[in-house]
Amino acid sequence: IVEGGRGEGVPPGNYGNYGYTNSGYSACEEENERLTESLRSKVTAIKSLSIEIGHEVKQQNKLLAEMDSEFDSTTGFLGKTMGKLKTLSRGSQTKLLCYLMLFSLFVFFVIYWIIKLR
């Protein structure tokens, strides 16, 4: 016996699909699938971005290590040069040291003049 279009033994208001109408349930399913796919694509994008950031960090660390070694070698070179200049200044070669200083000033003046003309 069918009462009001419902199957026998089905409680009133419950049509066998737990209170959802077929169209409403499938709309929720479609929205969940759409949101899940959107979330999946965002997670994939964030993952690839974090991998790229990791590669960039490794490259920058390598560059910094190279710069550090270059600065160390330059520091050693300048230290040796300053030691030689101190040796020159202590000796009787003050005339040579004056020529060296005048030459340095001349070079700096020429560089300044070239830069200023640009």
**What is the N-to-C succession of helices and strands?**
HH
- Weakly predicted, low-confidence segments: 1-7, 13-17
Q: How many separate helices? A: 2
Number of beta strands: 0
Mean pLDDT: 81
Oligomer: single chain
Q: Share of helix among residues?
A: over 70%
The largest sheet is: none
Radius of gyration: 41 Å
Q: Which class of secondary structure composition applies to the elements?
A: mainly alpha
- Principal-axes shape call: rod-shaped
What's the N-to-C terminus distance?
A: 102 Å
Beta content: under 5%
Summary keywords:
118 residues, mainly alpha, 2 helices
Write the layout of secondary structure elements.
Elements: H1 22-90, H2 94-117
